[in-house]
């Protein structure tokens, strides 16, 4: 779908939910691209050149022009490649998609991570409460098979963190943050979403990622003793 | 510019930088709208109905459909009313505008507020350092008269917080966060921006706002003693 002149590159790191968002979007649009795996312990010159402010992945590079922030990248991809739109065409529906994606980033990503990676019991309870409240709001919002209706859209892609990362990290801490019983609609959505062919082939392998987070969790526990 | 059938309403509160963003955008586009002043101590039924999640202003209401989050509202307004565009037409430039507006929200708004409204000296120093660093990054980014070049765009509107609110609250704490000497380009920008006819007539009156923040600051100081 890209011309010979085009350079489409993604600086990423396997295991990052934000990188995964971009991978899903590119695959949905059937864009060929070069994936450059970054070592986040020893960042490449390229990463520092393209993202001197945050020095983080993902960085999407299109004809030598870098784009940063996963949701900004998704908007860009949707504007450049029109096939299989990920934002709705109706302006009001677009605004809702932007709102809910921001809601996921502001209210769910950090709070649910901290629900696992926090030692202080009281602090941790607070994060669990916050995540639960936000997940409940999202549960109430989900009307169809996907947030995009019959097809995956912007919000579904943003919510890959909920479908894949939360179940993974909650297992490490034996936490019941996101379960079938608590959020039946959201849970069903997550199963549909994870089994979508495009999503499925773009998820990182679970075991090494589990081991990575487990080591981090154990390190945190050890340091607190 | 609106038809008789249209209802365009803004639930706001004078003195909110996020509401001010929407007011500037609407004025730039010459959209007539009804401003509903909210009492944030005693929130209206309408606000609770339209924004049950955050219960905050601004809420932009277009034909009974509520839109929340100031930057999401700006995108919506720009999509619905095409005159005097606030986002660039080029997709890459659009992505940059989205990136920098998010940067302002993520890195400057909170850190600079906390540079004033924090009692603990060490914490406060940390916020001042963070704000200074972020303002420096923005200073380096500014190339023309406005972030939008010769005309005000999305980033300029998002940055109204820097032009109007930071100078106001820093005076309360006798803080030199954003000055001509430290950030000459950004400071010049702020003067151009504040004197732009559309911006000028949409800024809240300074004195009552100063008194409001001063009372908050004094209350904080008193409570810490």
TrEMBL record, chains A, B:
Keywords: Transferase. Residues 6-85 form the GST N-terminal domain. The keyword Isomerase does not apply. The keyword Cell cycle does not apply. It catalyses: RX + glutathione = an S-substituted glutathione + a halide anion + H(+). GO terms for cellular component: cytoplasm. Its EC number is 2.5.1.18. One of its GO terms (molecular function) is glutathione transferase activity. Residues 90-212 form the GST C-terminal domain. SUPFAM superfamilies: GST C-terminal domain-like (SSF47616), Thioredoxin-like (SSF52833). GO terms for biological process: glutathione metabolic process. Transmembrane segments: none annotated. Belongs to the GST superfamily. Tau family. This is glutathione transferase. It comes from Trifolium subterraneum (Subterranean clover). The lineage of its organism: Eukaryota, Viridiplantae, Streptophyta, Embryophyta, Tracheophyta.
């Amino acid at each position: 779908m890209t011309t010979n002149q085009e350079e489409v590159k993604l600086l990423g790191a396997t295991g990052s939910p934000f990188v995964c968002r971009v991978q899903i979007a590119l695959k949905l649009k059937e864009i060929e691209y070069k994936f450059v795996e970054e070592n986040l312990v020893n960042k490449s010159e390229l990463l520092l050149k393209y993202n001197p402010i945050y020095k983080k992945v993902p960085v999407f590079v299109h004809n030598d022009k870098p784009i940063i922030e996963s949701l900004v990248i998704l908007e860009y991809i949707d504007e450049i490649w029109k096939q299989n739109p990920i934002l709705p065409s109706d302006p009001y529906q677009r605004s809702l998609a932007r709102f809910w994606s921001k809601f996921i980033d502001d209210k769910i990503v950090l709070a649910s991570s901290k629900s696992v990676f926090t030692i202080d019991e009281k602090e941790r309870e607070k994060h669990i409460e916050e995540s639960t409240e936000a997940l409940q709001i999202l549960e109430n919002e989900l009307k169809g098979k996907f947030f995009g209706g019959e097809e995956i859209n912007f919000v579904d892609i943003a919510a890959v963190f909920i479908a894949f990362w939360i179940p993974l990290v909650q297992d490490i801490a034996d936490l019941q943050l996101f379960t079938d019983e608590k959020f039946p609609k959201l849970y069903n959505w997550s199963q549909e979403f994870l089994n979508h062919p495009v999503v499925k082939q773009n998820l990182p392998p679970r075991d090494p990622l589990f081991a990575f987070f487990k080591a981090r969790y154990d390190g945190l526990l050890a340091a607190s003793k």
